[in-house]
Amino acid sequence: MGCRRCIEIKKCCIMDDMTKKIIPIIMKSHTIIVSSPVYFDNVTALVKKFMDRTWCIRGFLKNKVLGAIVVGRGYGLDTAIQATYSWGLKHEMSLCHRGARIRGYEYGDALKDERGLRDLERLCNRLYEVANILFSRF
């Protein structure tokens, strides 16, 4: 809607699953992983909608650890990672890995992308490592 009412009332005025379920989970999380198939050179419209709906919690995602995973034929994988990390930087989140790009076109192809799966494992390990550093209780 782009109503910007959240500026006045300090929360989203759209009462749906995003507001009632997803945002509370995000607020409690230390690490957020955004994953998207890439159909047309970028994240899907649904993922972009998710990103846009976090406008109402700007300032509250600062220093959360962000990772990005994209799966697609090859075209647009970097653009989708860039869109995800640009969103995270707008929220002042911590980026600690270049993101996992997994190639796949037909059903099951992604499981054959050895390099992509290695990058995915490295991404997950790095997110865990950084979140542990930032959020461990001494």
Task: Describe the protein.
This protein has helices at residues 5-9, 17-28, 45-53, 77-90, 114-135; strands spanning 31-38, 65-72, 94-95, 100-103. The protein is α/β, with parallel strands linked by helices. Strands 1, 2, 3 and 4 form a 4-stranded parallel sheet that branches. Helix content is 45%, strand content 16%. The chain is globular and about 50 Å long. It has one domain (28-135): Rossmann fold (3-Layer(aba) Sandwich), CATH 3.40.50.360. The model has no long low-confidence stretch (mean pLDDT 94). The chain starts with a helix and ends with a helix.
The overall strand count is 4
Termini distance?
Answer: 43 Å
CATH fold call: Rossmann fold
CATH homolog superfamily: Flavodoxin domain
Structural class: alpha/beta
Spatial shape: globular
Strand content: 15-25%
Main sheet summary: 4 strands, parallel
Mean pLDDT: 94
Radius of gyration: 16 Å
Low-confidence segments, given as residue ranges, are none
